[in-house]
Amino acid sequence: MSDVRNEWPLWEVFVRSKAGLDHKHCGSLHAPDAKGAVQLAREVYTRRQEGTSIWVVRSDQIVASDPADKDMYFDPMADKVYRHPTFYELPDAVNHM
Amino acid sequence: MYTQAMDTAPREERSALEDAALQQRFDARIDAGEFVEAKDWMPEHYRKTLVRQISQHAHSEIVGMLPEGNWITRAPTLKRKAILLAKVQDEGGHGLYLYAAAETLRVSRDQLLDALHSGKAKYSSIFNYPTLTWADVGVIGWLVDGAAIMNQVPLCRCSYAPYARAMVRICREESFHQRQGFDALHVMMTQGTEAQRAMVQDAVNRWWWPSLMMFGPPDSASTHSEQSMRWGIKRISNDDLRQKFVDACVDQAEVLGVTLPDPELKWNAAREHHDFGAIDWDEFWRVVGGDGPCNRERLAARVDAWERGAWVRDAALAHERKQATKEKAA
Asked: Which pTM does this prediction carry?
């Protein structure tokens, strides 16, 4: 069994597909350091011009919401329909505002 | 893909009652066709099944680089060489997407590779056949990648989302693999010499049956199929996929001008499918069990690459640690 401490750390990869768009999470990879992670991300995730910019971040640096809290976190928004423009019915003459 | 490194929260003790509730909610989500994400609760058997399937799939991609890699230096033209390089690099990339997907299930990359190198984990038995001629490279693209695509497209809808996402990416890239193979064969069949056409036919004869075996044992003998179907890990049965593949290949073989080596292959109007001859399952199990033409050679090549690359991995990590220490001191 290999020594896990000698495994290259894991990085999350975010790629901007073209100028003007957001960076989007596209996968993860192992790399020894940040520079290596960017280089490997280019080989693994942009072999067909999928991107114009790459971000990498150590996976253990990401803080995520707990899936067990999903209902508590997100469901309260379900009954706030007044936050959407379609909630308001205006007179026809101005309804496209 | 989410990662196992993020999943560091201590596991809480749960009562049997809570477990039953979690199981019920999981089943309901599967039944509703919803996706399961890395950090969601899942039954241990589901997790283990996925680790086995995804890592086996990843190993197949990596070992699959070997038979074709043999031909990179011997490709007949610069164009074919560039194409083959790109394809073999893709296979490596596909292996990496899949390892990362498997690692979301609380296994490390090193554990997965150890399982491959020690012979504990399997990979697709097709890669234990040799690539004897240049035509083999074309036939691998046409038939082997063709069968792989047929197998993989339904996996894009697999219930485990990190696996499904990896498969979407893979399927998008895989189509080029099949097409370049057919193209290489087509050039030989239409513009080649008599000897080249015979070489293509010979390669088809050798790869046809192993390609059919890629869909796995018949449904009646497939041990994991039923549970995997229930869980939405598998969407279409082995035999149904195999039939679909045979039906697709018959027309393609005609366009190519080759015959498929099965005297019993014929259209059945009542079934609206092609009937085909019996598959030699003894051969399949023999190759899976380690006694194919190239099993030992393939595994030895992987172990050798891993061991000979160890100093590079260690040096890169040592360099990073040294830099980190320097930064801290500064």
From this structure: 0.90
